[in-house]
Amino acid sequence: MRQGMSDHRITVLPGDGTGREVALEAQRILDTIQNHSNHGFEQTVIDCGGEHYLATGEEWAEGSFELCKNETDAIFLGAIGYPGARLPNGDLAGGSVILGLRSGLDLFANVRPIKLYDGVPHKIHGGFRQIWEPGMVDMTILRENTEGLYHALLRRSADRAQGREEYEPEPMTFPGIEGEVAYDPRPISRHGSERLIRMGFEIAQTRNGAPSDGVRRVSCIDKSNVTRGCQLFRATFSDIASQYPDTEADYGYIDAFMQWITRSPEHYDTVVTSNMFGDISTDLGAVLQGGMGMAASGNIGDQHAFFEPVHGSAPKHAGQNKVNPIASINSIQMMMDYLGRKNNDDDLVAVGRLIDESVADHLREGKQLTYDIGGTASCSDVGMSIANRLADKLKER
Ligand code: IPM
Ligand code: MN
Q: Is the CATH number of domain 6-112+143-166+299-396 3.30.465.10?
């Protein structure tokens, strides 16, 4: 029996394609922590996703959303998306899972750390080159996760996940535009912006500032020269920034940000942005950190959270045990940090840091890397190697 046990109910949603392979590596990390510490995890695995939909006619078994909502402390999601798997209304099959949880559990912040580890080549020029010194890329982007251009789809997905009638926005007309037209409303609220931006400032307090100058900085990335939603987002940002006088408030437009993040990533510490801009800019961010195989994320709300690699199901690589599990392992790192802070359990926060150190040591040594960062090792080899390092660190304490 573990002494002074802290137990957490973890729901694992492997999903589609490579999501299933990396979910096994995420679970291996949970098992390793459980075997070598006082922290325990009760893991429940639920089949879901587009392929599951094609096979069974449902995105996940009835009651799954409720289990995630009522009987889960944190969720791990592998990936959703299977070629050709669409619902009758054209929406992504599996959307009830990824989008239904984001909206239905009110996970308003999609937190995506972008960090280039020592030993990892970034992906600019498509090659394995190193321009920046290790440590020059170390920022966290917070993407608003319940509103914006995704709002209608998110809302429909959450309704479907809960067996409710699916939301459809009121029809609009557009002067000067005739014939067939499709459109997506982009609501941005003060409340939705405020809670995201506040979390951004709070996360900035836990970081070390920007790599270039150590200044604690939160950057508001929007398109407020053009859209009203972004004007409200920026105005809300300014209000909140004034409550954090020791943190630098920084402003940029999304188009210019795409240049700066590529030219001078070291300027950025914490970034807050709207839903679609965050979706796009974090894929570019992944390039700066060695590719999608390195990109972890947490979808976080006041009551619930789920953690997922950003890479998606990558159908062409599925079934070959070859993708990089580090995005998933680092998503578990974020999960430990979340559970630790939520339960005032400093030891679990420390366990999260040990995962980071295990990943960093593994990459610095550079002996077993997956193909995407220049090696030939398999997904499970990398997962086992990092889990072994973690076990050693947990035992040494
Ligand atoms: C992401 C993905 C999703 C998104 C897709 C799979 C719906 O691209 O998490 O970034 O667009 O949010
Ligand atoms: Mn995306």
A: no
